[in-house]
Design goal:
The protein is an all-alpha fold. The chain has one domain. It is 52% helix and 0% strand. The protein has 5 helices and no strands. α4 packs across α5. This is Mor transcription activator family protein. InterPro entries: c-mor_Regulatory_Protein (IPR052411), Homeodomain-like_sf (IPR009057), YraL-like (IPR049739).
Length: 88
């Protein structure tokens, strides 16, 4: 979560109204419903992991063993099996 100064993003009138209720404290303003991003969307992690998993599946189907993939990708054998035997 990123903190921003209220005076740099809110109109002065709104800032003064908020100050009637709270001053000098942190206030969390949630996203609107339906606007929340899924895990990893903002940083690209979701995309990176999806591409990695495709690569793991390709190597497995070319004959590489799960144990070798686990060592190569620094993942547990159980994680590799979930990737390989999961969604095909």
């Amino acid at each position: 979560m990123k903190y921003r100064k209220a005076e740099s993003v809110l109109p002065q009138e709104l800032l003064e109204q908020i100050q009637q209720y709270i001053q000098g404290e942190y206030v969390y303003i949630p996203n609107k419903k339906g606007m929340k991003k899924a895990w990893g969307e903002k940083t690209g992690t979701r995309h990176y992991i999806a591409e990695r998993n495709v690569g793991i599946k390709k190597q497995y189907y070319k004959g590489k063993k799960c144990e070798e993939l686990a060592m190569e990708y620094h993942l547990s054998l159980a994680s590799i099996r979930k990737i390989v035997y999961g969604n095909k």
